[in-house]
Amino acid sequence: MTSSDELRELRAAVRSFLDAHPGAADQNTWRRFAGELGVAGLAVPEEYGGAGCGLAEAAVVCEEIGRALSPLPYLSTAVLAVAAIIESGDDEAKERLLPGIADGTVTATVVFPGETELSVEGGLLSGVAPYALDGAVVLAYVGDALVEAAPSARRPLVTMDQTRPLAELTFDGVPVRRIGDAAAHDRVRDMGVAALAAEQVGGAARCLESAVEYAKQRHQFGRPIGSFQAIKHKLADVLLQVESARSAAYQACAAPAGELAVYAAIAGSYCTEAYLSAAGESIQIHGGIGVTWEHDAHRYFKRATSDAQLFGPPQAHRARLARSIL
Q1: Degrees, nearest 5: CA angle 114-120-124
Q2: C-beta of residue 34 within 8 angstroms of C-beta of residue 78
Q3: Which single residue of 84, 229, 240, 263 has CA 20 to 30 Å from 146?
Q4: What CATH number is attached to the domain comprising 131?
Q5: Calpha distance 248→264 (Å, rounded)
């Protein structure tokens, strides 16, 4: 288990890097971020060039990525793809893919059932993944198998939230490499939900910080607006939501295997709504400037809105939670 001091140092290093490279998503930046900082290999076993940690440590990186609205492919590569490869139990795939992910030379993504119309016949993959997190290596759960395939076409999508690159992946009878069975796809997806929750906490916390800073600086009637009771109440409510969301996200990221589904559903539901609320209240507190293109408030609101659909809306997580505990 990583110590608190080490986690603080990790957070500081990641924040410093992202502050120095705002909005950068090129391959060189990813290699430096993943390789020099060593963050892409946090959940990769040591024998494959990683740090041998886990999702709890990766959550620190996810939170900082959410705070900075970074478009770097950390969620798809260092969380989802690493988890899918490890859970597959395929030693050949681990040896071939994990070292490249750990040193930043490989990006990857995972396509889950229900998100696509893919099928494998005669060892060939056909169909379209209309909205996929982009990555050079594509892993897809199709039928009863986890397969690796190279898309015959990639089309970058122009979306409302431009801080989360998505692509349409087309497979026109391309050969597949079977990595393992699909038994672990629910667990891998839940790890993605937990990691996304940590990202949402970072974004929500930054919305709160920005709103507090503005409430101290903006004056009306000779007083900072932060001294008005209505603004105080808004900020206090958002603070409660952010801290509660942080507890939910980190509990999910640290949950043992048998409890991950429940805690991921809790985090997916609560953190999504907390981020939407924080982003919306930040715009309200900023007033007129909050609805301008020049201010970042709208970018956080767009990220919060798109995150609410990435692994399903809050009500879907609550329905899944109800099925698990009732």
Answers
A1: 135
A2: yes
A3: 263
A4: 2.40.110.10
A5: 8
